[in-house]
Amino acid sequence: MEKVVVVGIDISKDAIHACLKESVGDAGSRIRGTRKFLNSYIGFTELLYWVSQRSREASSVCYVMEATGSYYENLAYFLYENRLKVSVVLANNIKYYAKSQNLKTKTDKVDASLIADFGLSQKPALWQPMSSGYRQLRDLCRERICLKQARSRAKCQLDAMHHSHDKLACILHIKEEQIALYEKLLLEIEEEIQEKVASDAELSRKVAQIQEVKGLGLLTILTVLCETNGFLLFGNIRQVVSYAGLDVKMSESGHYKGRTRISKQGNTRIRSCLYMPALSAVRSNEPIKNLHLRICERNPHARKKALLQPCENSYVNRHPLSGKGNKSLPASIYT
């Protein structure tokens, strides 16, 4: 019988807690060792040596870890570059798996063991890193969003200061300089984004095709493409919609009929950047405009809800560029 080994890894800023488990057929799993390592290159090499000493007879070794902020990235890329199997799992999946196992204790060591169990029983998909170009553009787009939010806060603060009594002129000047700095940085980061797009012929082609759709600007398109890695990791449209948190969440039991809403359990940056394109599509795209009117007729008191289908259409209409088709969810689920 083939012996499968899974290394469950719980990662924090400074440390890595690893638990190595092997499958033992119908009997379940057996712990072969647990150990703590530094979250650094030295710790990574020590982890590889420690695992190799305990998995010599294994037919397959897979490293499973949580997507803990950005702390997991260096280890994931290190393992991938060494041609090892890596799975990165959402923290929510581990959380609900722990509940299903009725696990009440929470420590780093217990979490590593739990992640190893999850890897053995659920067999998560292998992790694929984002391409270098998309990753750089994603970081630039995210920083641009942060700068826009900071500028909006500063403008609101300045407006409040202008309406306050006897505010010092130096404070107003500081706030105005702060806003000017944000605007300068936004211009610089947008120029950097445009330069990177122009240097990539394939990406420029994709962007040009999508820009034929009315209401979709360059930065909106890039945000969606970068956050989804060009849609390369999705097998169907439903996965794409779920990733953005636009999938429908229903609440019904017996005679109880709860409200139907989107789950919002997904990428918030995608949802936020799609709102204005959805408004534009409702005005300028005739099929989407008619669809929006039909949904509003059925839901006269929930006009904002009617924007969900245009929002989804603006999102999934980018998906054909990855060669996966262009099938959208039925509009009836939003009504």
From TrEMBL:
**Domain Transposase IS116/IS110/IS902 C-terminal, chain residue ranges per copy:** 209-291
Transposase IS110-like N-terminal domain location: 7-160
- GO MF term (any one): DNA binding
Give a GO biological-process term. DNA transposition
Q: Which Pfam families match?
A: DEDD_Tnp_IS110 (PF01548), Transposase_20 (PF02371)
The UniProt entry, under NCBIfam families, shows: transpos_IS110
Which PANTHER family does this chain map to?
PUTATIVE TRANSPOSASE FOR IS117-RELATED (PTHR33055:SF3), TRANSPOSASE FOR INSERTION SEQUENCE ELEMENT IS1111A (PTHR33055)
State the protein's name.
Uncharacterized protein
